[in-house]
Amino acid sequence: MIRLRPLVAGVALLAALGPGAAAADTVKIAFIDPLSGLMAPVGQNQLKSWQYVAELANQKNWAGAHKFEVVGFDNKLSPQESLTILKQAVDQGIRYVVQGNGSSVGLALQDAVAKHNERNPGKEIIYLNYAAVDPDMTNSKCNYWHFRLDANSDMKMEALTTYLAQDQNVKKVYLINQNYSFGHQVARAAKEYLKRKRPDIQVVGEDLHPLAQVKDFSPYIAKIKAAGADTVITGNWGSDLALLIKAAKDAGLNANFYTYYAATTGVPTAMGAAGAERVRYVGYYNPNNKGFRGSEVIEGYEKKYNDDFYVMASYTGIAMLSKAFKDTNSTDPVKVAKALEGMKVESMNGTVEMRATDHQAQQPLTVATWTKVDGKEVKYDQENTGYGWKTNAVLDAHVAAQPTSCQMKRPG
Fold first, then answer.
1. pLDDT tens digit sequence for 221-244
2. Fewest beta carbons less than 10 Å away: which of 53, 184, 216, 264?
3. 16-32 mean pLDDT
4. Which domain holds residue 163?
5. Domain co-membership, 143 together with 212
6. Neighbour count for residue 64 (Cβ, 10 Å)
7. What CATH number is associated with residue 143?
8. Which pLDDT score is estimated for 24?
9. Whole-angstrom Cα distance, residue 51 to residue 181?
10. HSE-up of 211 (CA within 13 Å, CB side)?
11. Does the structure show a pLDDT above 80 at 100?
């Protein structure tokens, strides 16, 4: 059996609470994501984000007497490793799990959590999914114990193509994605939605490549250039996006990139000035949005870690758990799951609602372009590049909302 230990300490709690500490619950949350290998920089940033928001919640008593401790475990981006970790977390009495990197991992965890809860009444687990965005997880494979805090890939593609379709300069699109469930869903949705919104656009090429294995994307960039593409759509994340962007820059590819994850660790540095006005992303978060309410968080995070905060789902997730704990006066996952259904909280970029029918968060989505910081439209940069994200459009939650085929089976 693999022996696991937390890789990064959670928030120190009880020693700081003083007299009466025993009366306060400390709820441990198992963070299960890659903390080694090519995707480690992303996973490490995300773990710190969950821990930082948990610390903020503890300091400000978001959940009343209840406190949070986020404990990181390295799954090496492996579904099998994740299932081993899940078992060990359960054995340690942890009843809340967060994960986000890789829908292949997410689907495995979702199924394992459902089976565990069915077989172990009284020891239920809740799975908070902050970034695994395969639409099936809240459609055909939906489960009562799974709650997705991010927008799924179809919602993001709906928003992205709504914006892209307005640009009449887009004529030829190339699709490049990672070869697993999420990458397939991005490619499918891109073709379907472009055909519906701009049937004149040609998809001139499509590639699926191994996840977190490619170190040189220059052959792929050569194919994109040869196809005459003016636009690239990709769901790539982590090193697979950073290295793709770097290869495009090195080859002088004169195309615009429409992405999901260009604001994540490593990509801003890979783009630098060469990505200015050429790279866009769709997501739930942009600190340069008008009405952004998270300055304290991103500035505090940067000061503590010398890193960029971008995992707004960690804020949303801790806020939702806090409200559920207070509303139910309990940390019992059975009561908390019921309280999460239909819940609304104010997050950093607006209202987030956990739709009860499928446990898919509904929230505004932003399309933004990589642009030089000007102190007005672009106040915050990323990775000390002097460049950040200028908001092109904020789409209300209903614009990106998708119907669901979920037939939710609720306990009892």
1. 999 999 999 999 999 999 999 999
2. 216
3. 65
4. 154-283+365-400
5. no
6. 12
7. 3.40.50.2300
8. 64
9. 29
10. 19
11. yes
